[in-house]
Every structure is written in structure tokens, then in C-alpha cells.
Design a protein that fits this description.
Number of helices: 3
Order of helices and strands: HEHEHEE
CATH architecture: 2-Layer Sandwich
Distance between the termini: 25 Å
CATH class: Alpha Beta
CATH topology: Translation Initiation Factor IF3
Structural class: alpha+beta
CATH superfamily: YhbY-like
Number of domains: 1
Length: 98
């Protein structure tokens, strides 16, 4: 799921993945798949955090496609996935400081 246009290094991705381990999914993608409502939910979640987990009901292959589509719609990056949960990152989207 690594995007060739990513601005993150491997080390940065690794750190973000480790931070994401304790997070709970904030957005859930059902059978309807990706739509403007799901993109809005993720954009709203990015108002509170730079790192957001999304849970999918789709099979793994479709989930990877949907997560890339969702990343494009929200101008975020998929930094990793485990099972049917993907972690998205958008720098500076929240007011929190590291």
C-alpha cells in the first residue's frame, strides 16, 4: 500500500504505525463502500487527530482499493493496514502538536 508519491520516509511510516497501534477505528466503511459521506467523516476525524484508523467490511483486496480511493478523496496517506483496518495520516490536519 505504499504510494510512490508519499512524502513520508520508511522510518516515519514505522513510527506512525507504532503510534496507531493503540488507536480505535473512528470511521467505518460498510457495504456501500466509499462515498462523499465517508470522506466527510474521515475529514471530520482529521480535525481532531493527524492519525485516524478506518475499519472496512470489504475483503482485503477490495479494502486496499477503497483505502487508496479514500486517501485521494481526503488528501491523506495510507500508512499501513492490519486485517480490515487501515490507518490514514494527514500532516497538520489537527491543532495538536507533537
Amino acid at each position: 500500500m505504499h504510494d510512490e508519491h508519499s512524502s513520508l520516509t520508511g522510518a516515519e511510516r514505522g513510527k506512525l504505525r507504532s503510534l496507531a497501534q493503540t488507536l480505535d477505528p473512528k470511521v467505518f466503511v460498510g457495504k456501500a463502500g466509499i462515498n462523499p459521506g465517508i470522506a466527510k467523516l474521515l475529514n471530520d476525524a482529521f480535525k481532531n487527530a493527524d492519525l485516524v484508523k478506518v475499519r472496512f467490511t470489504a475483503e482485503r483486496d477490495l479494502m486496499e482499493q477503497q483505502s487508496q480511493e479514500l486517501a485521494k478523496l481526503t488528501q491523506s496517506e495510507v500508512i499501513g493496514s492490519v486485517g480490515r483496518t487501515a490507518t490514514f495520516f494527514r500532516l497538520g490536519s489537527s491543532a495538536s502538536a507533537e
